[in-house]
Specification:
It is built from 4 helices and 15 strands. Helix content is about 25%, strand content about 25%. The chain is α+β, with helices and mostly antiparallel strands. It binds 2-amino-4-trifluoromethylsulfanyl-butyric acid and cobalt (II) ion (2 copies). The site of one cobalt (II) ion (CO) has 5 residues, from β4 and β5.
């Protein structure tokens, strides 16, 4: 299926669900601390989505995923499964990835959190990966090509001696969780899809401290760095507007 262009009415629905997804990250923040299990974080998010937002976690049951959110700690690149056995410790870095489904529409966003006192080398990876997302967002506008976006992310990561994960990418989103186009976080300028007003997609770069390669754990979901070094990811859902872009999952205190 081709890339969908959302109507003004569909954009309104996406604004609503994306705000809900962003709100979950705001709600969970104060619970991310040493001693908390990733299962507890899952339960807090799940309850908020279901009870307060009257919405659905799109992750729960998605292709058999067993939990409502993804919690990816340290060397876990993405799709970490919340567990009561995984207790956060001071020094950990964690990505929490939320996808809310409301009235048939999806909103997808993730961010990193620092747990307790985090070493400066880990903080730096987290910061540079956020900068990669923001540099990509700055480029989103009609006429920009997806290769321009991938290139900007890759260049900033590699300039800082980090690598870009290749196996997972951003995606179109709307009534379907993962739709066209694929949004690669590496690439060449002036190549790929030309953006048009009304397109909605995620940008979700994963940066590794070491090699870019990953391995899938035997649970069938958890993706780790193959060298065991740290990984960091930030994700927003963005709308291409007439003049640039609107970050649909922006949090109020974010420097966008
Ligand atoms: N939210 C993830 C993404 O950014 C997808 C998670 S799928 C799951 O695309 F099944 F692992 F939850
Ligand atoms: Co996504
Ligand atoms: Co996500």
């Amino acid at each position: 299926m081709a890339v969908t262009i959302k109507s003004e009415d569909e954009v309104k629905q996406m604004r609503i669900v994306c705000r809900l997804a962003a709100e979950v990250l705001e709600i969970v923040e104060k619970h991310v601390r040493p001693g908390t299990s990733t299962e507890a974080l899952n339960d807090i998010c799940h309850e908020h989505i279901v009870q307060n937002q009257r919405a659905i976690s799109a992750c729960l049951g998605y292709r058999g995923f067993p939990k409502s959110i993804c919690t990816s700690v340290n060397q876990v690149v993405c799709h970490g499964i919340p567990s009561e056995k995984k207790i956060l410790r001071s020094g950990d870095i964690i990505n929490i990835d939320i996808t809310v489904l409301k009235d048939g529409w999806h909103g997808d966003t993730s961010r990193m959190f620092l747990v307790g006192e985090v070493a400066s080398f880990a903080k730096r990876l987290v910061e540079i990966s956020q900068e990669c997302l923001y540099k990509a967002i700055d480029l989103v506008a009609p006429g920009t090509r997806l290769g321009d976006i991938g290139h900007a992310i890759q260049e900033h990561a590699e300039k800082n001696h980090y690598s870009i994960v290749r196996e997972y990418c951003g995606h179109g989103i709307g009534k379907i969780f993962h739709e066209e186009p694929q949004v690669l976080h590496y690439g060449s300028p002036n190549t790929g899809l030309i953006l048009e007003e009304g397109m909605i997609f995620t940008i979700e770069p994963m940066l590794n401290a070491g090699r870019h390669t990953t391995k899938l754990k035997r649970d069938g979901w958890t993706v780790e760095t193959s060298d065991g070094r740290l990984s960091s990811q930030w994700e927003h859902t963005v709308l291409v507007t007439g003049s640039g872009c609107e970050v649909l999952t922006a949090r109020p205190n974010e420097p966008l």
